[in-house]
Amino acid sequence: MHHEPMTDSTELLRSIRQASREEDPSALLRLADTAEARSAAELQPLAAFARGRAHEVRGDFASARRDLARAIDALAAGSDPWLTAACHTSMGNVLRVVDDRAVAHQMLELAEAQWTALDDPNGRGTVRQHIGSLFAMHGQFEEARQEFHRALDLFRTAKNMVGIGRAQTNLGNISASTAQYTLAVEHYRRALQIYEDNKNSIGASTVAMNLANVYYSVGEYAQALEQYRHALQGFERERDQHGIALLHGNMGMVYAALEMFELAMQHYEKALEENTAIGNIDGMASVYTNMGVCAGKQGDLDACLAFHQQSYALRSTIGNVERSSLVLGNIALALIGLQRYDEAEDVLTQQGHLSTQNPTTLSYRYSNYAMLATERGDLTSAAAHYKRALDEAEAGGTLAVVAEHHASLRTVMRRLRDLDGYVYHTDRYIELSKELQNEATVRRLAVIEAERRVEVQLHERDKERAVLYSALPRDIADRIVHGETIHGDRFQHAAILFTDIAGFTTRTSSMEPHDVLTFLAGLFGQFDDMCATHNVFKIKTIGDAYMCFKGDGTEAENAYAMACVADEIRRSHHVWPDGTPVAIRIGVHIGPVTAGVIGTERLQYDVWGDTVNVASRMESTGEPGRIHVSAEFATTLDRASSQISTNATDTLRSFRLHQRGTIEVKGKGSMATYWLL
User: Fold this and answer.
1) Which end of the chain is more exposed for a tag (fewer CB within 10 A), N or C?
2) Helix (H, G, I), strand (E, B) or coil at 246
3) Cα separation of 435 and 215, whole Å?
4) Cα separation, 77 vs 133, whole angstroms
């Protein structure tokens, strides 16, 4: 009794680790309930982690933060090292999402050290992913790219395909953020294939959303909406609130770009509702910003100002300087539009106090000062501010921002009657506008071409996989597709069956080769169908011999399935061209085998071991039209009826065994064998 709690703890930890790795929130919540019901003190950190991890997977970050904090507080000095590292990793990710940057980074670095001590590349890869995402959130794209590549290498070491898919997704996000859309599409497509192969719905939905973001960025709004809707269905199916919030926000942006403002606001409101439910402060602030932009485009400056002020109130609580500065700029613009110039100047002064070296942010700040000066009639100051804005944009901003400032300077120069300045900025604006149009066209075509190229590659891959799945058991083919090398699998209770056609050589000596092939194809085709019905795998045919095996079930399940196949083969009716019935010898044995894939191009899955030899001897020493089985197989099959279950609509078959007696078997000596009737 003294060791019972430890057994409970060990078993629960194992189950929670598996559910966490598979990102199965339902299983995690069930395990949390189980741990809490046992009321053992050492199980409480497990329960709190499982519950927090489930909320993290579902995107309920407010609940996740609460439960993970409870788990970390309950960790004792002797707590399991994996649980300790996992708690800090999940908490670091949650803090990253809600943009508590400093504490998130500290928590993740602590987790990295703990995973390193455990020599766990999966844990380290997950941490590097979260740190990369933290950098990306703050515009540090090169640092983020480096972290995602580190994560990718770690997941490859661990052969973690889902982790590899996530790293590819994040690398696609960085490429999209830096306008490398073709590269982004390639990363996304690789990730999508991995997620689909592993039936990871949330991962696939995330990639679909990111592909839609690329379409949105190049102005392909119809395709963007189609992908967004597809992704939304996946997130809703999995009840992933974080994903649902992102999707509604992104769809709102598309409708706003199409000037369908009512629909845009409806999606923004849904996004705000979901972000509020999960406590995602950064998400809530982003939605308020988009709502403010949408209201401003409709001319409702009061609503525009109110939304941006709500966004800033949230931003100021999480300390994101860059985004806070941009929101203050939006507030100043709304105040300028409302002719509340003194208030606008106060906000711009406040914006200037925020420490930022981002050229785009600085460019917009000077542009806002210029707009205020213009409204006050101080065109000389406006021109000076616009020139400073232009300098910052040319130093590190985008081409579109540079063009925008040239357009503003053109207007100011015209009002100042500065003809040379007007002509210069007009010419530059026209040149940049053409360049932007050409660039947009090139990007759009590049994305379309990237999609076409990837589709061709996927089509070729699907053809290769079709061949692979036809040559190998599905679970073996899946393992090869996922990068695993199949050197040798061990099956302790594999049932092996051999068949041989009595008198085959004599009967076929006078037949045309084509007729022989047609005859064997028809015969073995029926055998294949029988095997497929009972989840038995055909290994190979050699001339008129047929070999199959089943090793993936229990000993009783393997024996019963092979008995069914043997019985159906014996009962099948085939005739020679002269009408004489075909007689087939069948031999079966059960025992340990080694199995693996042979070759590198023409792959073949085969099995080896003494069990195979005995099964072959059962066939060769049998009689035509009968099933000859070993004593081991007979004993196992006799127990099978009490150890296996069938579907409600199926009836368990009843087999009779008749002792043949003792026979001499080459290489084995005397053996007791049976006829299966």
Assistant:
1) N
2) helix
3) 20
4) 31
Q: Residue 672 forms beta bridges with which residues?
A: 662
- Which backbone phi and psi does 659 adopt, to 5 degrees? -70, 125
| Token couple for 1 | 């009794």
Q: Given this model, what pLDDT does residue 595 score? A: 86
Q: How far apart are CA 209 and CA 226, in angstroms?
A: 10
Query: What residues are paired with 588 via a beta bridge?
Result: 497, 629
Distance in angstroms (rounded) separating the CA atoms of residues 586 and 187: 52
Structure tokens at 664: 């001499």
Q: How far apart are CA 502 and CA 580, in angstroms?
A: 12
- Residue 541 — φ and ψ, nearest 5°? -120, 140
User: How many CA atoms, within 13 angstroms, populate the side-chain half-sphere of residue 538?
Assistant: 19
Cα–Cα nearest to 472, from 549, 404, 416: 549
Locate the DSSP E strands across 481-556.
489-501, 537-542, 545-550
Dist CA 231 CA 211 (whole Å) = 10
List per-block mean pLDDT (blocks of 10 residues) for the chain, which spans 677 residues. 45 87 85 86 87 83 88 84 94 82 89 94 94 86 93 90 90 87 86 83 88 85 87 86 91 92 95 86 90 95 96 78 85 94 93 75 89 93 93 81 91 93 92 81 64 62 70 69 67 94 91 91 93 90 92 90 95 90 95 82 79 94 94 90 58 86 87 93
Are 83 and 113 spatial neighbours (Cβ–Cβ below 8 Å)?
Answer: no
Cα→Cα distances 587→61, 100, 361, 636, Å:
60, 68, 79, 15
What is d(CA 296, CA 307) in angstroms, rounded to the nearest whole number? Answer: 10
- What is the dihedral sign for C-alpha 407, 413, 418, 419? positive
240 token code pair: 């992933």
- Signed CA dihedral, 11, 14, 18, 19: sign only: positive
Token pair of 600 as six digits: 């590198």
SS3 state of residue 299? coil
DSSP tag of 484: -
How does 283-317 read in b/e, with b if 16+ C-beta sit within 10 Å? bbbbbbbbbbbbbbeeeebebbbbbbbbbbebbee
Instruction: Tell me the angle at which helices 81-97 and 121-137 cross, rounded to the nearest 10 degrees.
Output: 10
Q: Where are the beta strands (DSSP E) in 189-313?
A: none
Beta strand segments in 422-512, E: 489-501
**Of 64, 51, 45, 135, which Cα lies nearest the Cα of 99?**
135
Q: What's the token pair of residue 269?
A: 């409101």
Rounded CA-CA distance 510/477 in Å is: 40
Helix (H) or strand (E) holding 143: helix 141-158
The torsion defined by the Cα of 180, 185, 190 and 194, in degrees rounded to 10, comes to 120
**Residue 652: Cβ within 10 Å count:** 12
N-to-C CA span, the chain: 50
Q: Count the neighbouring beta carbons within 10 Å of the beta carbon of residue 636.
A: 24
Dihedral sign for Cα 80, 83, 86, 92, please: negative
pLDDT at 452: 67
By C-alpha distance, which of 561, 570, 563, 557 is closest to 536? 561
- Tell me, what DSSP letter sits at residue 602? S
10 Å Cβ neighbour count for 392? 23
Partners of 628 in beta bridges: 587, 675
pTM of the model: 0.57
Residue with tokens 């014996």: 570
**What is the rounded CA–CA span in Å between residue 99 and residue 315?**
9
Dihedral in degrees, nearest 10, Cα atoms 145, 351, 375, 409: -30
DSSP state of 491: E
Residue 145 · residue 173 · CB < 8 Å: no
